[in-house]
TrEMBL record:
Keywords: Membrane, Transmembrane, Transmembrane helix. The lineage of its organism: Bacteria, Bacillati, Actinomycetota, Actinomycetes, Kitasatosporales. It comes from the Bacteria. Residues 1-22, 186-234 are annotated as: Disordered. This is TIGR02234 family membrane protein.
Length: 234
């Protein structure tokens, strides 16, 4: 007898399923993006509410200390942090091309925060404006200007948002969608509900349109109900 060796039949689904390391990498990218985005936005909003610069303004009575918060120097990092946080949430509410657009917006918000924070780290225009209001002069000088590390904290937050955007661009197409389960349930249930409504409408012989249709076909619309009553009586 000739031995027959059973050959393994390839499974088509297995070819499309990611390997365990790939699946772990996708889950890790999702977790890192969420953590980096949320932490980055929180750092930016915290940093912009703190003092970025301080100095001394010359007035008639002598000198007066002045300080400026991050929002006084530039409102761009805080606004971009809010937009970036909204984009981070929106990544899971859209799919395909929309997800790529939102991910790019998230990355751009992070890059904008880094640039604007770095520029604001040495900006004394807000201090000069405050000094002008105190002294009453159009261009009041400001002396002994000192800067705090908070602008660079905001820049770090921008880097984290940029990282979240880059991860969303690279791995976002594999992440789950927030509304996917509800869309599938609604799509699957709609045809069934439609068929049920059509079946209920078609099974009611007492509807006026059904009586007219029966008369057009030359049928007696009262025959079927009478036959049903006779069968129930029997």
């Amino acid at each position: 007898m000739v031995g027959v060796t059973a050959a393994a039949v390839p499974q088509p689904r297995a070819e499309h399923e990611p390997s365990a390391p790939v699946a772990r990498g996708r889950r890790s990218s999702l977790a890192i993006a969420l953590l980096a985005g949320a932490l980055g936005a929180a750092l930016v909003l915290l940093a912009t509410s703190r003092k970025w610069a301080e100095g001394t303004a010359s007035v008639a009575q002598g000198s007066l200390s002045q300080s400026a918060n991050g929002d006084d120097i530039t409102g761009l990092p805080g606004a971009l942090a809010v937009v970036g946080l909204a984009a981070l949430v929106a990544v899971f509410a859209v799919r395909r091309l929309g997800r790529g657009v939102v991910a790019a917006l998230l990355a751009l918000c992070g890059a904008g925060i880094v640039i604007s924070s770095a520029l604001g780290a040495s900006d004394k225009a807000a201090l000069e404006e405050k000094a002008s209001k105190v002294s009453g002069l159009t261009h009041s000088p400001i002396h002994d200007v000192a800067y705090t590390p908070w602008p660079w904290v905001a820049a770090v937050g921008g880097v984290l948002l940029l990282l979240a955007g880059v991860l969303a661009l690279g791995y976002g197409r594999h992440w789950p969608a927030m509304s996917g389960r509800y869309e599938r349930a609604g799509t699957a249930g709609a045809p069934a509900r439609s068929r049920a409504r059509r079946g209920a409408a078609a099974s009611d012989p007492d509807r006026p349109e059904e009586l007219w249709k029966a008369l057009d076909r030359g049928e007696d619309p009262t025959e079927a109900p009478a036959r049903q009553e006779a069968e129930r009586g029997a």
